[in-house]
Every structure is written in C-alpha cells, then in structure tokens.
Amino acid sequence: MNIDVFILARLGSSRLPEKHLKLINGKHAIKRLVDRLKPAKKIRQIIVCTTTDKSDDKLVSFLKKEEILFFRGNEKDVLARFLDAAKQFQTDIIIDVEGDKIYTDPSYVDKIVSLMENTDVDFVIGSDSQKFDPADHFTHGIIPAGVRVNALVKLCQLKKTSNTETGYKEFFTSQDVFSKGYVSPEIIPKNAKKIRLTLDYQEDLELANLIFKELDDNFTLHDLVELYHRKPELTKITEKIITQWENNYKKYVPDLSLKDTK
Predict the structure, then answer these.
(1) Taking the model in full, what pTM does it have?
(2) CATH assignment at residue 126
(3) Over residues 69-83, mean pLDDT
C-alpha cells in the first residue's frame, strides 16, 4: 500500500501572500514543514500539491531547488488536485497536511496511518470529541487528516461543486456515505481553545517565529504544550484573529451536497 503525505500549498493567499515562502526563524515555512514531517516512519514520500496557476511558479522554483517532490493541479478544486496527484504517484492513502499546518507532529502522521492500515475507514482526522470542529486550531495544528483514495474517487464523482478550496474536509465528516475515524491528542492544555497553530495571518507568522526560535524543527506535541504552559502569553498574539478566521471560513465553505446516490 502506497501512503504519501500531500501538502496543499499555493502562494495566492489574500491574508498572508506567499506565506509558504515566508521566513520563520531564518528558514522558509514550506521547508520547515517538510523537514518536520520527514521523521514519520509509515509514509513513502512527501509531495507538495500546488496549482497550475502562474502565481505558483515561484513556489515550484523553490521546491525544485530544494529537491522537494511536487504536483501541479486544479487551482480551485482541491479534491480534484488530490485525486490527480494520487493517480500520478499511484497513492492509495493520502495523509493530508495543509501547507499552513507548520506544527504538524510526525508521530501523529504515523498514528493516522496505523488507524487506516488496521481499519477500513475512509477518512481520519484529529478530534478531542469524536466529531469534526474546524475551529479547533490546536488539534488540527498538530494532527493531520487521512483520506483513502478510493473514497476520494467516489467523492469526486458525487460532489456538485468544482470549488473545494475551503472546507473540503467537511465533505467527508458531514456525509453518511463515508466512514470516519478520529485520533485524539495525548495531551490537551487548559487553554487549548485559545491556542491557534497555523499560518494564515501576519500574527500567525509572528507567533511561529517565536515558537520555532524556542523549539527549532523537531519538537513534539508535548514540547509545544510545555512551552504554552511556561508562556501562556503566547495566546495573546493570535487572540484577535480567531473570530476573524471563523467568520471568513463560514463565508467560503462550499456547497457540500452530493448527487443522488439512489
């Protein structure tokens, strides 16, 4: 079984343009993420899935220079991009790491893989409540998602929209036609709801510079939780953008309805 990490990345973000090439404590964000994922033991390869749009040429040039595998596909339809990349690389299970999830813990990559190897679930994601909460920035900042490619094929046949750029995971979590599994973080800090672990705004970049300066690349969930226990003031940096993000997310969630399967 071929199990690959697919990293979604494009440079056209309106909130933090070219965020994947921003320097975080002296190293490009996309490079930091790839390096963090390399210790995962149960994956075959790491592939950055970007778009065919000219705006991503700069990203592709960087990936080539760093000898990082990449795929260029549909700009707006993330699910189609995933499926086309899976066909090219003959991938059976996709470990979905969004490019702004720079804190993803490789040990949880392996936990997702183990669950999918030992069950027949179509989709796995992190959760501390056995349900999907897109606003749980702590859990999703640490734990990636897993997608079985045969389920992705089915979804691409059934979905009505061709714009799945935002909220695409909800196609799996909100539909009864797909089986779901959940992986919980081993430790959850008291202030978890205030911890935002992603890279989408300038404030996120400021926070990332502080965290990676303290911990470098190879830190774990436990290291990160311990840092927030020592420095709870870190939550103040991104506090004001949490509601802003939620409002923006709700605005762009796609039509999740599927074609009649009867």
Answers:
(1) 0.95
(2) 3.90.550.10
(3) 97
